[in-house]
Amino acid sequence: MLDTQLNSSLSYKLFRADAVRDNEQQAAQESAVTLFTLMERAGEAIFRQCETAFPQADHLLVLVGQGNNAGDGYIAAHCAQKAGRKVTVCAVEPERKLDGDAGRAQQRWLEAGNSVSRFDDELLAQCGVVIDALLGTGINTYIRNEFAQIIDTVNHSSVPVISIDVPSGLDANTGHSLGRCVQADVTVTLVGIKPGLTTGAGKQSCGRLVFEDLGVSDAFSKLVKPFASWLDIEQFTRLGPRDVHSHKGSYGRLLCVGGNKGTAGAIRLSGEAALRSGAGMVRTYVHEKSIIQVSAGRPELMVSSEDLEDALQWATCVVIGPGLGQDDWAQQTFAQVLKHCQSEDKPVVLDADALNLLSQQASAYTLEHSILTPHAGEAARLLGVSVDDVESDRFNYAKQCAQRYHATCVLKGAGTIIDNETSVAVCRHGNPGMATAGSGDVLSGILGALLAQGMSLDIASRYGVTLHAKAGDDLAELYGQRGMLASDLFEAVRALINQ
């Protein structure tokens, strides 16, 4: 189902910052260019983004550090000046002479009759856009105070910012702030897209992400194995028409388990999402006090509170967790479902309270045909760490969760991560409007429906996450982010899955 031609593009792959640094020189050589030529191309690309994103800004403030990132900034400054823009270059140590290609770019700026100033608030107030070339991808420890002070001042101003490669102060691999981090409006990342720009706080910090391969993509892609895939709905081919002679049994029998007393809505959302995602038959097993609430208004959902074993034998796939609770009924139900799915090797999606119950087990279940869908809090409980730990290195903890349970882990949030122990993917879709009650329940229903229809765990998890997030983006584009309801996703998902 993945379109391999699209997936081969560098714009759909993520590379660790150290892999880019270690291989860009050889990629340049094999592309018959020098590293300084790449620096020139980077600076030109930055200025193009200034012209595109902020065409009315006639005064540019370029903040430079001491490495190659600064060299890119000097080139961008020179391009802007040649185009007739007013440009001011500021550095923490204005008198410091840089080495290597960055020094060559600095010398070009100075030989054109220009100077380097010390940063102050007045210069910031006078400019129309800031080019952030302070700190690059080589920084992985907490930044010095003099840089932190500049970053604070820039973040507190209303002047738009374009960051070069990564926002200064951001760990390019994890997306974690190194004490302070520029909050950019646009980030132009170079040669390879860094994973820290695509998930968690890093996705917020980089603003709109622009990728420039600097003309070495063919050589670079042959040298370096990507760290992860970056998923877009366009990478997935259509499901195709259904067979004329098919019937409801051809598209799976999904059992959704949850809906304790007082929490019927969650399992109802999962069940209806599964129907809207193409599952042939969907049955819910709920607490007896939730039957009416789940069945009302959706007669296509089969609902029961008795004979769980019979329901499990009927199902080809199970979703457990939405509205499950953690009382005695929930614990007994959870144990029976997992025992059955393990003994029958049946695909299962664990969400919400099923994850909380899983975290309380003395020993980890082995769930090789399962998808776990934790948010950061649930992942923290599963792994015995803090939420801050998870958010500081989402890739690492998604991997740990997948390895601990031998499952596919879907770590939800900005830039949802899908890790199946051997490969990693990040969803590029989604928006803050989806941070609403029930959104995760809808996702679990989508995932269950795709598994029930015969998709592999790998494709179902990647496509399901992408489908869910893109549906949210489509709704936000139509109506805005505020006020989005989880149930609003049903029609958007149905429209996407039939395209």
Automatic annotation (TrEMBL):
K(+) binds at residues 69, 132, 168. Keywords: ATP-binding, Isomerase, Lyase, Metal-binding, Multifunctional enzyme, NAD, NADP, Nucleotide-binding, Potassium. AMP binds at residues 412-416, 440. One of its GO terms (biological process) is nicotinamide nucleotide metabolic process. (6S)-NADPHX binds at residues 136-142, 165, 266, 323, 375, 441. One of its GO terms (molecular function) is ATP binding. InterPro entries: Carbohydrate_kinase_pred_CS, CARKD, Nnr, Ribokinase-like, YjeF_N_dom, YjeF_N_dom_sf. Its EC number is 4.2.1.136, 5.1.99.6. Residues 20-222 form the YjeF N-terminal domain. The keyword NAD applies. Residues 231-499 form the YjeF C-terminal domain. Its cofactor is K(+); Mg(2+). Homotetramer. Belongs to the NnrE/AIBP family. HAMAP family: NADHX_dehydratase, NADHX_epimerase. Bifunctional enzyme that catalyzes the epimerization of the S- and R-forms of NAD(P)HX and the dehydration of the S-form of NAD(P)HX at the expense of ADP, which is converted to AMP. This allows the repair of both epimers of NAD(P)HX, a damaged form of NAD(P)H that is a result of enzymatic or heat-dependent hydration. Catalyzes the dehydration of the S-form of NAD(P)HX at the expense of ADP, which is converted to AMP. Together with NAD(P)HX epimerase, which catalyzes the epimerization of the S- and R-forms, the enzyme allows the repair of both epimers of NAD(P)HX, a damaged form of NAD(P)H that is a result of enzymatic or heat-dependent hydration. NCBIfam families: yjeF_cterm, yjeF_nterm. PANTHER family: ATP-DEPENDENT (S)-NAD(P)H-HYDRATE DEHYDRATASE, ATP-DEPENDENT (S)-NAD(P)H-HYDRATE DEHYDRATASE FAMILY MEMBER. This is Bifunctional NAD(P)H-hydrate repair enzyme. It comes from Salinimonas marina. The gene is nnrE.
